[in-house]
Amino acid sequence: MTRQPTNTSNIFKYALLILVCFVILGPVLMTVLGGIRTNGEFLARPFDLPRQGIQWINFQQILTNSTFWLALKNSLLITGGVTILNVVLASMLAFVFSRVDFFGRGFIFNVLSLGLLFPIVVAILPIFIQVRSLGLINNLWGVILPLVAFGLPGSVVILRGFFISVPSELEDASYIDGCTRLDFFRYILVPLARPAIAAVATLQIIVGWNDYFLSLLILNNSDNWPLTLGIMQFQGQYGTDWALVMAYVTILMVPAVAFYLFAERYIVTGLTGGELKG
Amino acid sequence: MRRRRVNKWLFVAGFVLPGMIIFFLFFIMPISQSFYFSVFEWDGFGPPTDFIGLGNFERLLQHGVFQSAVEHSFVIMILSLVVQLPMALGLALLVGRGKLRGRKVFRTILFVPYVFSEIITALIFRYAMHPTNGLFNWVGSFFPGFEPIPWLADRNIALYAIFFVLTWKFFGFHMILYMAGLQGIPPELEDAARIDGASEFQVLRRITLPLLGSTIRLTTYLSVLGSFQQFALVWVLTEGGPVNSTELFATYLYKYGIQRFHLGYGSAVAVILFAITLVFSLGYQRIVMRQDYVLNPAE
Asked: Is the pTM of this model over 0.80?
């Protein structure tokens, strides 16, 4: 008898997976259910259906507050700034490192690779001092530029790997047809590398959108705060109204999940350097 | 000919300088300056003048809170290696390939926490782990004899509660890396072993895991580095308390260096962090990841 993929082993696998999924989704569901019920309902039972009707008023109270929209704007500015700068600068660097031979190239690339060794958190204090001495405290650039600096090395490594894999015959042919280097980069290489660029951009969107530590240090004025700081302030103000805070968390979870479902492919490619398919 | 060479250098400068200037200003310069600042007693106002040599380092190494912060960071690191990574690997084996129906749905769900920011995650668990009205104790109350546990308020439990949240958020990331590694293993190898009579466990131990070596080495590396850089999650959950029982490297740095404006002292903490990170990174890459291509600088 050959061993069949027995039902018992499959049942065990499903039981395990469903259990893990419960642990993953339980707290998330609790938050959503908390946000659509009254505070009293939540305190009575953390996990239950909305028996007094869905409390749209919680969401209304947050979405009609101008500080929410201000924080959203700041989050979008930081995310956009980090992503665009990172992608543009990293593609330019990766192009030179992969295709243009010049004296000192290896040295510069090695210096940049140092960045792979240090996560931004370990350097947060010196960054704070530097941003302060450049006069960028309370300025969104004071958050954007350090995030770009620490994100560049990783992005360059991913893109360089991709650029190297583009056959050099293509480059030669384009030069023969009268392209300059810049033309080749803009019209041929970048369009070809679109999946890799999308992966890099996706990871940077996550970095910019989720930043908390740097914003906490650099942005003192609440008018400049992104959503991560905004929700903490809100939480401090309305801490006793759990339902309200959970409604806020729910509002922030929606774009994260939507973005994830939309960009899952790119996130996965980015994290695994393009190794994982389907 | 000469003109072309000039053009080439202009091109290189135009492409390299913008990125490298930002990298220099916000990476190289801050990191090198912190070595200089670390030998001063400096409150951050005006240039540092009060030179105290290694005084900051002496004070730091004698500070009990710093010692326990180091210890907690190591506890988190070891727990990540022995709990989080094997769990991620196991789940990757279940949903990363094979014919299990619905595996893509599971895969998507398992990765969801990774896309929430640390702030969102921390807030969710502040409520889920609340000592009186939280989800955890509510679930527990269905079991006979269960006493409500103050998850984040008990100094003997808080660090492990934080580790639970860290695992909840980050195991999906490692799982994805393992899944990518698994796809690189040709199924024929494992099938051949099965035909030769190897049990599933033997196949896993002798074929799959060895072939997954480079991925396992990479996730170990990222996991260790990750343990030294946790801040936002811990800060929102406990602020390092109760009684410093969840103080980690970064929360210590923030509390004692930045909030109190002891920038010289904080720089000393940063220098120690660099040293640990650098020694670990270089050592690990030289010794353990030698055979792998990852993070390989220019040829």
From this structure: yes
- Over residues B28-69, the pLDDT tens digits come to 999 999 999 999 999 888 888 889 989 999 999 999 999 999
Location of structure tokens 């940063």: B270
Continuous segment of H or E residues that includes residue B50: strand B50-51
Question: Sign (positive/negative) of CA torsion B94, B100, B103, B105?
Answer: negative
Cis (ω within 30 of 0) for the bond into B242? yes
Q: Which domains does chain B have, with CATH numbers?
A: 35-287 (1.10.3720.10)
**Do residues A147 and A260 share a domain?**
yes
**In this complex, which of A106, A118, A149 lies closest to B277 when CB atoms are compared?**
A118
Judging by beta carbons within 10 Å of its beta carbon (0-12, 13-18, 19+), is residue B57 exposed, middle or buried?
middle
Distance from CA of A129 to the nearest CA of B (A): 7
Amino acid at residue number B239: E
B chain contacts of residue A20, beta-carbon cutoff 8 Å: 91, 110
Question: What is the spatial distance between Cα A180 and Cα B224, in angstroms, rounded to a whole number?
Answer: 45
For residue A188, the enclosing domain spans 65-271
- Would you call A253 and B134 a contact, using CB atoms and an 8 Å cutoff? no
Instruction: Give residues 47 to 86 of B whose Cβ lies within 8 Å of A.
Output: none
Where does residue B81 rank: exposed (0-12), middle (13-18), buried (19+ CB within 10 A)? middle
